[in-house]
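Hello forum,

I keep getting stuck at the same step: I have a sequence, I want structure tokens, and every attempt I make locally crashes halfway through. Rather than fight my setup again tonight, could one of you with a working pipeline run this one for me? It's a single chain of 191 residues.
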Amino acid sequence: MSYGGNNRWEIYGRIGVSDLKIFDSFSSTNAATITSQNDFTENWKFFGTLGAKGFLPIGKIFGIGAFISGTYYFNNFTDETAGTNAGVPFTADLKVQNMWDVNFGIGFQAAVPYDIKLYAGPYIHYLEAQICLCANIPGLAFGTENVLLKNKTIAGGFIGADIPLTRGFHLNVEGQYSERLSVGAAVSYTY
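Reply #2:
Ran it on my machine without issues. Output:
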């Protein structure tokens, strides 16, 4: 949901679901510890986002804009692994909790035929969460103490298109890259 004026500014709130994958979170550095999986994976956790954006047209075709947003994940992400440590079986849960992030970016936009808007620009992204393993297993990266989890790369870039469909509906397709490439799409209705 959003509110704005004259295609120049907008404040918005979003509720959605997210997945989380952490590569090699269950990988063991101890030869006596063997795990059933290496990667942490959890799906469909709710989040909320609040943000604002502004746009300054430079002629009829080009413009420049900026945005800032913050997101909080309402649920904890959890995954478990099973394995053996020196022949003794174990099961351990890994929990990611209190996850939040902040984004800020500047975008350059061009209007092309059929009222399609193309945009691209750099952004800064900061993410933080607490991560904890329920058991202290030798060779696993995380122990029973809370560890602060942060993103490795704070800078990235984005590119996208806003495509009018019909009767106030728009399709927005966007790709982002910092540590990895991610792509998403959304259909919105303006009245």
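The mean pLDDT is 93. If your local run keeps crashing, start a new thread with the error log.
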